[in-house]
Design a protein that fits this description.
By secondary structure, the chain is α+β, with helices and mostly antiparallel strands. The protein is built from 20 helices and 16 strands. Helices cover 42% and strands 12% of the residues. The strands form five sheets. A five-stranded antiparallel beta sheet has the order 4-5-7-6-9, with helices on both faces. It has a four-stranded antiparallel beta sheet with strand order 2-1-3-8. A hairpin with a 5-residue loop joins β6 and β7. It is globular. The N terminus is likely disordered.
Length: 579
C-alpha cells in the first residue's frame, strides 16, 4: 500500500494559525526576504514595512520577523511561548513604545485579580454584555487566561503606522475602552504583552469581525468627546510627594532609559507640591547620587539634573507630572486632581471680531425685517451688518450652499446683489446657529498633562439626555455643506423620540433609561451616516439619514434591548416605514 505524504498547503489551518495570519499577515512575510532575494538574485534594500513581533516569557522575549519563524517557535514544545505582542516594532532588540512600527489590534485585559475589574464569577457572556453596553463592536477574538480572566482583541482591517501622535491617540482610546468594560487600566499602550493564543484558551474567534481604526475614533468621539477650549489652568496645591507611587519613584533605581523621565517627573511632582527651587535642587542632587545610573552611552550627569530643575521651574506650562508616566515608571495606580477653571467667553461687544455664525444670525434677522428679501451692493449690505465685504461673501457662499438663502448678482455700473430667504429654511438654520452658539464646555477635573478625566463632570439637572442642539452639533464632523432640511429633521426626530419619554406613562427611572438608550442610538446612527458621506457621494443626505434612523429605530423595537416599547408617535412612523 502506497503512503501519500500530506503537503503543507493541504494541512488543515488551525485557529491559532488563522489568528496570527489575520493579525500580522498584511505586513509579515511567510519566509525570510533573504531567501527570496537569493532566489531572484536581487540586491538588498531596506524594508520600511517589516514588522518585528515578540513572543516568550515576560522578561525574556524573542523577536520574530516571518510567519514561518513564528509558527515554528509556537509548535516547538521546548520553547516558552507564554506571551506575545499584538502590535509590531521596527527593532529586534527593543519593544519600547517609541520603537513601535504597526498597530494591528486593540487589546484589553479583564483580570479577575485586578482592582480595576469585577472579581469573581465572570464568564464570556458577561464580557460580551460589557462590550455591548459600552457601545463597542463585537470583538475579533477572546482569550481566557489561567487565572480565569479574559483578554479581548479587536483586529484592524488595515494596520496603522505607529507614529507618535497615533500612539497617543491609541492609548487614549484604549484607556476609555478599558474603563468602560472594567478592564485593567495598567495594560495600556502599544508595547503591552498579552497571553499567546492556543487551541484551548482561544475561546472566541470570528475572523470576519475586523474593523477600521476610524471606527474606534468615532466611538471615542461619541462616548468620550473632547471639548477643546481656551482655558486658564489653576492647580490644586497639595503635596503629592507622600503618594505611594511618587515615594516608590523617588526611592527606586533609575536605570538607563528611564532616568530622564524619572528625573523630570520627580521635579514636576515637587513643583506641584509647592517646594521652592532650592529644596528641589537639593533633593534631586541627593536622588542623583543614590538612585540614578550615571554611565551608559550617553552619561547622565549632575549638570543635566540642575538644568532640568531650572528649566522646569522657569516654564509656566510645566506644572505637574503626567499620571500615565508615573504609572508606567512605577507600575502603581496614580491620579491627582487638576482643576480647570474655564474662562467665560467675552461678549460680542467686548470682542474685536465676530464669529461667522453671528454674521449668519445677523443676516437672518435683517432678512426677517425686510420681509425675506434684501437687495443692494455688497458694500451697502456689509455696512448694514457691520462686517467687511470679504466676510459677507464668505457668509453668503456658505448659506447658499446650505440652502438657507438664494443669491442673484447683477454686474455692471448699476449692478446689485439680491438675497432671498429660502422657504422652510429659516427654522432649520436658526436651530443650527443656536446649537453652535449655546454649546458651552462642561466643567470637569482634567489631568491636563495626558488629557485623562480623573474626576466626574458636573451633573446636569435634566429629565432626558442630550438635546436637539447637541444632535445638530454633530454635523460639524461632516466638514462639508449639508441641506438646511437636515437640522430641521434632526430637531423633529429628537422631539418625537427622546423628548417624548419625558411625558410618557412610564415611571421616571424606566423613562430615563429608555430615553438614554434611544439617544445613544440616534447619535451612533447619525455618526455612521456622516462617515458614509465622507467615503462616498450621497445626493440626498436628509433622505439617507431619515432612512437610516428609521431602520435603527425599527431594529431597536425588533431586538428589544432594554426598551419595551417606543412612544406612540414613533411607532406610527415605524409602521408607515414598514408598510
Amino acid at each position: 500500500m502506497e503512503v501519500v505524504a500530506v503537503q503543507p498547503e493541504n494541512r488543515p489551518v488551525t485557529k491559532v494559525e488563522s489568528f496570527f495570519r489575520l493579525l500580522y499577515g498584511e505586513h509579515m512575510r511567510d519566509f525570510p526576504r533573504q531567501r527570496v532575494r537569493k532566489a531572484r538574485n536581487t540586491s538588498h534594500s531596506h524594508d520600511k514595512n517589516r514588522p518585528w513581533v515578540y513572543i516568550g516569557q515576560s522578561h525574556k522575549m524573542r523577536p520574530m520577523a516571518t510567519l514561518a519563524t513564528l509558527f515554528g517557535y509556537l509548535w516547538d514544545d521546548s520553547k516558552d511561548t507564554t506571551y506575545f505582542t499584538p502590535n509590531s516594532f521596527y527593532r529586534s532588540d527593543s519593544r519600547q513604545e517609541a520603537n513601535a512600527r504597526w498597530i494591528h489590534a486593540f487589546a484589553l485585559d479583564i483580570d479577575v485579580k485586578s482592582e480595576f475589574a469585577y472579581q469573581a464569577g465572570i464568564a464570556l457572556p458577561d464580557v460580551i454584555d460589557r462590550i455591548e453596553v459600552a457601545g463597542l463592536p463585537m470583538p475579533t477574538a477572546v482569550i481566557q487566561t489561567p487565572s480565569g480572566g479574559f483578554q479581548v482583541f479587536w483586529m484592524l482591517s488595515r494596520a496603522v503606522r505607529a507614529m507618535p501622535k497615533v500612539r497617543v491617540l491609541f492609548a487614549a482610546i484604549q484607556r476609555h475602552m478599558a474603563s468602560d468594560i472594567q478592564g485593567d487600566l495598567r495594560a495600556i499602550g502599544v508595547e503591552r504583552i498579552f497571553r499567546t493564543p492556543t487551541e484551548r484558551n482561544l475561546i472566541y474567534f470570528e475572523p470576519s469581525q475586523v474593523y477600521d481604526f476610524q471606527t474606534f475614533i468615532d466611538w471615542r468621539e461619541i462616548n468620550h468627546p473632547l471639548v477643546w477650549n481656551r482655558t486658564s489652568l489653576q492647580f490644586e496645591q497639595y503635596d503629592i510627594m507622600n503618594h505611594p507611587a511618587i515615594v516608590r519613584l523617588y526611592n527606586q533605581d533609575a536605570e538607563n532609559g528611564k532616568r530622564e523621565a524619572s528625573c523630570l517627573t520627580l521635579i514636576l511632582a515637587m513643583k506641584l507640591s509647592g517646594w521652592p527651587i532650592e529644596r528641589t535642587m537639593a533633593e534631586m542632587e541627593k536622588w542623583w547620587h543614590e538612585c540614578c545610573e550615571k554611565g551608559g552611552k550617553n552619561p547622565f550627569t549632575l549638570k543635566d539634573v540642575v538644568y532640568r530643575v531650572k528649566r522646569t521651574y522657569r516654564r509656566a506650562d510645566l506644572q505637574g507630572p503626567g499620571a500615565e508616566e508615573v504609572r508606567k515608571l512605577t507600575g502603581m495606580d496614580f491620579t491627582y486632581n487638576v482643576i480647570r477653571f474655564y474662562t467665560p467667553a467675552k461678549s460680542r461687544e467686548e470682542r474685536k471680531y465676530s464669529h461667522k455664525y453671528e454674521w449668519k444670525a445677523d443676516l437672518l434677522d435683517l432678512l426677517q425685517k425686510e420681509n425675506g428679501t434684501l437687495s443692494g451692493s455688497l458694500a451697502t449690505i456689509a455696512g448694514k451688518l457691520g462686517c467687511a465685504v470679504s466676510s459677507l461673501k464668505n457668509v453668503l457662499a456658505e448659506m447658499q450652499n446650505e440652502g438657507a438663502i438664494a443669491v442673484e448678482s447683477k454686474r455692471g455700473r448699476n449692478g446689485s446683489t439680491a438675497i432671498a430667504l429660502v422657504e422652510q429654511a429659516q427654522e432649520a438654520f436658526i436651530l443650527e446657529a443656536a446649537a453652535a452658539k449655546n454649546t458651552t464646555p462642561e466643567k470637569s477635573q482634567i489631568d491636563n498633562t495626558i488629557g485623562e478625566v480623573v474626576g466626574g463632570a458636573a451633573s446636569v439637572g435634566i429629565s432626558v439626555p442630550g438635546s436637539a442642539a447637541d444632535l445638530i452639533a454633530l454635523l460639524r464632523h461632516l466638514n462639508a455643506p449639508y441641506p438646511a432640511s437636515l437640522p430641521l429633521y434632526l430637531g423633529d426626530l429628537y422631539r418625537d423620540t427622546v423628548a417624548t419619554w419625558a411625558s410618557s406613562a412610564f415611571d421616571p427611572d424606566s423613562a430615563l433609561s429608555a430615553a438614554t438608550h434611544t439617544w445613544l442610538i440616534l447619535k451612533r446612527t447619525l455618526m455612521s451616516c456622516l462617515r458614509a458621506t465622507k467615503r462616498e457621494s450621497i445626493a440626498h443626505l436628509t433622505a439617507y439619514v431619515r432612512l437610516s434612523m428609521s431602520s435603527a429605530l425599527l431594529e431597536l423595537v425588533e431586538r428589544g434591548y432594554s426598551v419595551d416599547r417606543l412612544p406612540a408617535s414613533v411607532q406610527r412612523q415605524l409602521a408607515d416605514f414598514d408598510d
